[in-house]
Write a structure and sequence with these properties.
- This protein is mostly beta strands.
- Helix content is about 10%, strand content about 45%.
- The protein has helices at about 5, 80-95, and strands at about 15-20, 25-30, 30-35, 40-45, 55-60, 70-75, 105-110, 120-135, 145-150, 155-160.
- The strands form 2 sheets. Strands 1, 2, 3, 6, 7, 8, 9 and 10 form an 8-stranded antiparallel sheet that branches. Strands 4-5 form a two-stranded antiparallel ribbon.
- The longest helix is centred in the middle third of the chain and has 12 residues, at about 80-95.
- The chain is extended and about 70 Å long.
Length: about 160
């Protein structure tokens, strides 16, 4: 079997992943959650021939996605950070009702392998940062300060 066929069976390893917004690489991340894609389950209860209760499960509609949560090392200069700029624009200027333009953006969580080849991608649509929070600070701590950004999204799809 050729080596290229063997490599196709390698597991998806999550060690090198990024956040892209409108096609531009924005941030190296340390953690991502909320990449859940789900379909509703519709249950109908029936009574069978001998009086037994039966539950039939059917495929429902796609559920709207929850929020994405991305964690990264906090930047030293938030004035030049694209995520902070995006968040501050929304917080300070607000979003107009029905805003589908400048404040809502499309983006991706992209995983690369050890050769920096893209191996997986989750695309989100009409997203905007709704919260930025920092980890707790402790006296005597030596770890880098991390921040978690909540991105509210309207749609999520996995492409690779």
């Amino acid at each position: 079997m050729p080596i290229t066929e063997l490599l196709k069976n390698d597991p998806l390893v999550v060690s090198n992943f990024y956040l892209e917004i409108d096609g531009a690489e924005i941030a190296t991340l340390t953690e991502v959650s909320g990449l859940d894609i789900e379909v509703e389950v519709v249950e109908s209860k029936q009574t069978g021939k001998a009086g037994q209760h039966q539950v039939m499960k059917s495929l429902g509609q796609a559920k709207p996605p929850g929020d994405l949560s991305v964690k990264r090392v906090a930047p030293l200069d938030i004035g030049n950070d694209p995520l902070w700029k995006w968040f501050n624009d929304i917080r300070d200027k607000g979003m107009k009702i029905g805003d589908r333009g400048g404040n809502r953006k499309n983006g991706s969580i992209v995983i690369y392998d050890t050769t920096n080849t893209e191996v997986a991608r989750w695309n989100f649509f009409n997203g905007w940062p709704s919260k930025i929070s920092n980890d707790a600070f402790t006296a005597g701590g030596t770890e880098a300060v991390s921040e978690t950004i909540t991105i509210t999204i309207e749609r999520l799809e996995r492409k690779k």
